[in-house]
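Example record

One chain of 321 residues, shown exactly as stored in the release files.
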Amino acid sequence: MLAVNALIDISGLHYRYPGTAADALAGLDLSVAEGEFVAVVGPNGSGKSTLARILGGLAVASGGHRAAVCGHDLLTEPGRLAVRRDVGVLFQNPENQLVAENVEEDIAFGLENLGLPASEIATRVDEMLARFDLEDLRHREPHLLSGGQKQRTALAGVLAIPRRALVLDEPTAMLDPAGQVEVLGAVARERENGLTIVLVTQEMDEVLGADRVVALERGSAVFDGPPAELFARPQLIADLSLGLPAAGEVGLALMQSGRRFVRTPLTIDELLDELVGSGGTQLTLGGVSEHPSSADDPAHGPWEAHTAADSPAPAGDGGEA
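Predicted structure tokens for this chain:
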């Protein structure tokens, strides 16, 4: 999908790890507009983390028609060096990005490497401590932080240098639920400030907040569109082993037991709305159809919706499943 005023403009990108027979990225096309939030999903080995490293100038593409990020040509060494200033990258293990003796010094580390004046560094560090709710942890050693605090410290260090884009490679994968909420809240605030965000994730609940989702398979994009459209394609979801957001999994289980919904819920709010106000539509296993169909019809995938009046739930067996 071509984005207007693309900040990330990639066409035909290839990457192959040394000693392997297949490309990790195989002719990938990707375009992201300034200020857009794009989630990247796919099974293990689909090329998600490879893409994240290339976008940040941390890996050298094997080839491509075009690879421009923030106006820098990633197919050249000068372009890769320059993009590291404009694009921040946050990985899943925060300990790999914490390098100093305490939170304050860690946030200052990148600024010091740029040779900025001490007064400017101090001002910027104070801003980051406040921005990421780390003021009370200013002098705390990294090993004494919780997982969420470590990741917020790493994120503050990444964004202490003004960026045009932020690439996150499964930033909540090693965090407990409380840490996940902390980090995702911090990322949401950066999005509100207009930062371009590319989020690599295997957590489908995290996909729901994105403007677009790009699904990779064997290094190529097989889907590019709104999250709701992805989750409306059950066969693709199954093929890529993605699953549904938590509310969708609950909704699917309820549908299989005969519960009648108007639409497939994807968020907790949508699930609650359906549980309180549903009644005119029967959701069953199958595709989307306005006509009654058998649950064992192989022509239909999961999550089919059709009117209850056309196909009443059989008594005693919980309805179609």
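Notes: The CA atoms of residues 108 and 122 lie 8 Å apart.
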